[in-house]
Design goal:
It contains no helices and 10 strands.
């Protein structure tokens, strides 16, 4: 399994970003997928999940601001992030849910105040 996240960048507080993740080498459509993030000096945390049946779940801190989605035809999972806050800063990763040990290269999101 290879996981490649992209779409990060520098944005002002209140702005938006959309992250993308392409998954290869796996039967993507039957797996629940998740987004995770690691802030500077902190442990990596779970952010959002989308199941094979498109059920979604979010950590409380991003509910109402982030939206996870998937496109099985493209083996892709997305994270639309709106109303970004400085505390959303970190490296964002996609992985299966629950997470496997195969962490790909994340994408940096920096939110300035």
């Amino acid at each position: 399994v290879q996981l490649q996240a992209s779409g990060g960048g520098l944005v002002q507080a209140g702005g938006s970003l959309t992250l993308s993740c392409i998954v290869s080498g796996s039967i993507f459509s039957i797996r629940a997928m998740g987004w995770y993030r690691q802030a500077p000096g902190k442990q990596r945390e779970w952010v959002a999940t989308i199941g094979s049946s498109y059920y979604t779940n979010y950590v409380v801190s991003v509910k109402g601001r982030f939206t996870i989605s998937r496109d099985n035809a493209k083996n892709a999972v997305y994270l639309q992030m709106n109303s970004l806050k400085p505390e959303d800063t970190g490296v964002y990763y996609c992985n299966t849910f629950p997470a496997s040990d195969l962490w790909g290269q994340g994408t940096q999101v920096t939110v300035s105040s």
